[in-house]
Structure formats: structure tokens, C-alpha cells
Amino acid sequence: MFPYLDTVARRYPPVIVWALVGVNVLAFLYQISLPQRLLDRFLFEFALVPSRFFGQLSLVAPSDWTPFLTNMFLHGGWLHLILNMWTLWIFGPAVEDRLGAGRFILFYLFCGVAAGVAHALANPDSVVPALGASGAIAGVIGCYARMFPAARLVMIVPILFIPLFFEVRAFVFALIWFLMQLIPGFMSLGDQASGGIAWWAHIGGFVAGWLITPLLRRPSATYRHYYRDEGIYGFLPDGRRRGGQSPWT
To answer: With contact defined as beta carbons under 8 Å apart, do 7 and 235 qualify?
Structure first.
């Protein structure tokens, strides 16, 4: 199940989202240009290895805090990169529109760092490099769901070669998505050596995004109200279906 389209109207071009996609793609192209030996060293230095901060490696190979920032611009493969950038492309523009470009980049970086901290604390002895933008993007999903809980998301489910489309409210999608991270996250506690999905990075990023949203949202006085005919595809500007008076979002 993948988000295909959102229904929240926006007024400003998502410049920061475009820039983040570009930076992630360039960073990945640099990664795959490295020979394996240099790539392993590069990931050890700039991806997030929790044991270098909270485990035994901190005694022999300590690190500064740079990987908590740099790891969110690295990816483990083309599919990893494409799925993350697609999710950012769906949820990011509406969030950037309501926060403003400056606040959005600070919000994105904060969620990414919070995601890294959550992952490292949950897996303090792990020596597996964690990398990817999914923790920061989880924060964007949390922010989107908090600002536009009744917005409709168009989802796509591929059944063999036939795509199935359906609508779901943003809050419902976020709740299901969060539970899908929380359950395996608790089950993974104590399994320090395994790789795979950094569940606690997703959890930490989502919670950080949900909690900090009210502090960063653009004041309504600085953002012109929508007129009632400015929704898209028969939806109100906040992504809800038409049928009643919409509060400004």
C-alpha cells in the first residue's frame, strides 16, 4: 500500500522538498561511485553506528555527532532511495507550505536527528550502520497527520499487474503506519546485531514531528486564507471533502 496523491491545496512551490530530493540523489550517486572498500569506510564514518556512541565501539572507535545529521542523506540502494523520496514528495509539499521554507528545513533536520537518537538508544550495541531519510520523513508524516487529519490520501495497492486505488483519511493512514512501526519495534528490542529496518528511527521521527508541529506552524496572519473554490478535485483546501464550512488550514 503506497500513497499516490494527497488532496491538500498549497500556495507556494515546495523548494525545500525539491532541494532535499536533489541532495539525496546526489549523495547516493556519490555512494555508488565509491569502490567497496572506500564505501565501507565512508558508511562507517557517516552512517549511524550506535555502538560508536553508546556501546563498546565508543571505547575504540568513538565518533562525533556528525552521523546523526549525515546518515539521513545516505541510502542503501535504489529502491530505498526511491521509496523515501516518493513519500517525501507526497507529504512534504503541504507541510512545507504551512510551515514555510525556513521552518520546514529546521523541522526536517530536527526529526531526522531525533530519529537517529531514538534508533541509537534502542540499539546501543549495534554495529550495523543505519542510514536513510525515513526517520525525517516519518516526522513529516506525523506533522501532516496532525495538521490535516481529515485530508484524503489516494492509496495504490498493486494486485498482480492491476493497480487498485482507494481513499483513506490522513489520520487513519498515519495511525496504521505508526502501529506497523511500533509493534515490530518492540519486538526488535535486544536484537542488536540484526540489520534491516530501523523501526525506532521511524518511531522517534514520527513522535518528534507530531509533538513539534504546533511550535513551528506558520501563524495564520502571515498566510492568506483560501477561498472556497481553491480546493482540488472537489476537496476543501485542508484536504477534506466538500460539504461544510472549512476552518482555514
So the answer is: yes
Listed residue (105, 102, 188, 172) closest to 139, CA to CA: 105
Q: State which H helix or E strand residue 90 sits in.
A: helix 78-99
Angle 101-122/134-147 helices, nearest 10 degrees?
Answer: 120
* DSSP codes of every residue in 112-155: HHHHHHHHHHHSTT--SPB--SHHHHHHHHHHHHHH-TT-EEEE
Bridge partners for 153 per DSSP: 6, 168
Residue 2 has pLDDT above 90, yes or no: no
CATH for the stretch 2-221:
1.20.1540.10
Average pLDDT over residues 213-237: 66
Residue showing cell 473554490: 229
Q: Is the pLDDT of residue 245 over 50?
A: no
